[in-house]
């Protein structure tokens, strides 16, 4: 375990760790599948992410520990294999009780990443459902954090990027073909929305990567293996996903 987590752990009381563990055991299937010694670091990273993130909500609605733990766990899940502990730019999370729209627009959203306000907006009942139904390839928090990872990576100096430059480039060029295939309707897995552009394909792919890893692998093994190399993990190895011995 990294020294900074050991030090951080000293300042977190047991009750908080237990509370986080219980929420994740109840709702996060990725966490449930982890080996016991990986669960400890996952909880610490979930609490570490919360420490450096500002959560807010609307008047009359409150942010519960369950919301914080579960939302943060989606970020930790995606970054479990790479050394990114928190979001530097999108470090504000606004939780809404129901779908919302922006001023002068009637379009309703359940979630979005807003570069103007540097905020990730999430509708709580949809976030929760994303975890409760863990095998339908739909998880709002995973989807929005996938956008954040790509956007933040692009903002960083290339020397301190969290995603390997070559792997990301490789994923993009390979995925252009996949995008075409989805747009033609020639696909038995992805929902149409994934064909919007590369950003949406990446975010949707991560939802499948974590909720339907075997189906995603069967659909396009090369694409799946590229995601494994990019995120340095393979969710098919549920006990120890970051032990990356990519299976054929
Ligand atoms: Zn999206």
From TrEMBL:
GO CC entries: cytosol
UniProt GO MF annotations: aminopeptidase activity; metallopeptidase activity
Record Gene3D superfamilies: Collagenase (Catalytic Domain)
Signal sequence coordinates: none
Transmembrane segments: none
Name of a matching Pfam family: Peptidase_M90
InterPro entries: MetalloPept_cat_dom_sf, MtfA_fam
Protein name as it appears in the record: Zinc-dependent peptidase
